[in-house]
Amino acid sequence: MGVQGPLPPDRRAETEAGTSIVEVMVATLLLSVGVLALLTSVGAAERATAAGDRRSIAVRMATGELEVIRSLPYDEIGIATGDAGHVARFEGRPTVTETRNRVEAIGRLIDGSTTFEVRRHVTWAPVDVGGSRIATGYKLATVIVTWTDPAGRHEVRQDTGLYATGAGP
Q1: Which helix (H) or strand (E) covers residue 12, if one does?
Q2: How far is the CA of 114 from the CAs of 13, 104, 153, in angstroms?
């Protein structure tokens, strides 16, 4: 066996292991696309979490507002006609009007960087009793909380029936 000399140039290319600059660039490009996709999904998850947090805040606000209304004496639950947000009718039902403004029709609450608008309605709900309709059967309190964020305008609504002591459906 003799000593072999250097491989001819065409054989050297077949036996050399290594990565060309084109292969490195393609691998870098693929890695960059993967990282970009990951960052985009993380951003979307953060936005979805923030939207869910705002909705939870709005639900708590609406629930709290209804609890305040429920705590008032039945005869004082209504909207004063002089209130800035007073409307004569809401969803076809007449508004319960009171001389004292125990329930404000509209207000704003701020949580962090989000401003929530709170609209309150107290209307008469009819009931049918023994074949006759009573137009002022019970009071229906409605609280609507709205807010705007980068995804658009959102709304949470809660309703509850209010009955005079000893009365019910």
Answers
A1: helix 9-15
A2: 65, 21, 12
HSE-CB of 84 using CA atoms within 13 angstroms = 3
**What's the token pair of residue 155?**
């709304």
What's the CA gap between 42 and 65, in Å, rounded? Answer: 35
**φ and ψ of 59, to 5 deg:** -65, -45
Q: How far apart are CA 124 and CA 88, in angstroms?
A: 11
Q: How many residues does the chain have?
A: 169
What's the rounded Cα separation, in Å, for the pair 66 and 53?
Answer: 20
> 96-131, pLDDT tens digit by residue?
998 776 889 999 988 888 999 999 999 999 999 999
- Cα atoms in the Cβ-side hemisphere of radius 13 Å centred on 108: 7
> For tokens 């953060």, what's the residue?
46
Q: pLDDT tens across 28-45, in order?
A: 888 888 888 877 777 777
What CA–CA distance (Å, rounded) separates 28 from 69?
Answer: 62
How far, in Å, CA of 21 to CA of 88, rounded?
76
List CB contacts of 54: < 8 A, sequence separation 6 or more.
Answer: 111, 114, 147, 149, 154
